[in-house]
Amino acid sequence: MDDEDTQLMLAFQAGDRAAFETLFRRYTPPLLNFLARMVQDRGRAEELSQDVFIRIYNAAERYEPRSRFSTWMFGIARNLALNDLARAYRKRERQVTEPHELDYADPSPDAEANLAGRRLATSLEHSLGRLPERQRAALLLRSEQGLGYQEIAEVLETSVSSVKSLLHRARETLLAELKEEAE
Amino acid sequence: MSAHPRENLVAYLDGELDTPTRETVSAHLADCESCRAEVSRQSQLDGALAALPRLEPSPGFEARFWARLARERDEATGLGARVLAWLSPLRMGLGLGGAAAAAVALALAFRLGGPAPLEPDPDWEIVVDSESYELFSENVEMLEILEILEDWDAASET
After folding, report:
1. Does A139 contact B at CB distance below 8 Å?
2. What secondary structure letter does DSSP report for A62?
3. CB-CB: which of B10, B56, B62 is closest to A171?
4. Separation between Cα atoms, residue B119 and residue B106, nearest integer Å
5. Interchain pair A164, B45: CB under 8 A
6. Chain A interface test: which of B18, B38, B42, B49 (most A C-beta within 10 Å)
7. Quick check: A176 contacting B, CB < 8 Å?
8. Beta carbons of A37 and A137 less than 8 angstroms apart
């Protein structure tokens, strides 16, 4: 494994704390976005993001690069997210079919011009939140994080053909729901 | 016209097909308007997903992370140090080595859910690390010593 992130993790293992800080700052935004859309709760997503980095920090001594750093990191995140969703389901804290509003800052000053776009984004967020967790995870890793199918398969601990199937079903569901809302 | 390769259309769009399959899908698309329309829909969905707003961490996120990490590590080492200090007279009596004593301390910390606070013994080095935990895992019979410790503790109170 010779990708830059793996080298940074190895540098941290050797005692370079700044290397960990680089990884932390680089991956906090994508990790937060992935977790927020997985658990549909921004506050919880921030806690889980910190959980991921604490695990990475504490695992430094035993770290052996068997995959890309991002694959390893998203694998930890996916496990924590699924555990959190299972826990919440048992406690009935959150209804995953009615996701919380994720609080975004509107970067554009022209809110009216973006109204249709924001409606679509809201519909898409709600539809994403209703997807089965594995389909949601596969789609987020592909569309939001840009991971390839092989890497997604490693994160989800499944096969590439299964990833293809998950993505196909996820997109079909989203398209059907968006079409229904538009009618 | 061949059967519609619906499931492969997404992989085609994602550039994830092997060469022969990609060529087959390309040839199909050249002749199939409905599949071309499907690719177009999938592409628009891709665009909408890519355009979803991005969350930024809340203010102070990084500072809270470092504070939390420091707190959790302090709690872990503090607990181990207290248990090691509590063990020290017994350790000398039983002739336990440092790692073995740390393994027992770790076992105690987990099993008893945290001992009562004690003054730490500055002469003892804090050894609650992966080596100790591995030693604990390999020598589960050490747990028998817990019974001795509990009996000793109860006897010292009478």
Report:
1. yes
2. G
3. B10
4. 18
5. no
6. B49
7. no
8. no
Rg (CA), chain B: 31
Name the band, by pLDDT with cuts 50, 70 and 90, for residue A179: confident
Residues B114-138 have a mean pLDDT of: 43
- Contacts A174 to B, Cβ<8 Å: 45
Contact partners, residue A11, CB within 8 Å, separation at least 6: A19
Q: pTM of whole model > 0.80?
A: no
Q: What is the percent of chain B with per-residue pLDDT over 70, rounded to a whole number?
A: 47
Q: Is the pLDDT of residue B79 over 90?
A: no
Identity of the residue in B7, B48, B58 whose CB atom sits nearest the CB atom of A120 = B48
**Quick check: ipTM above 0.85?**
no
Q: Which residues of chain A does B8 touch, with a Cβ-Cβ cutoff of 8 Å? A: 164
Structure tokens given for A111 = 């809110």
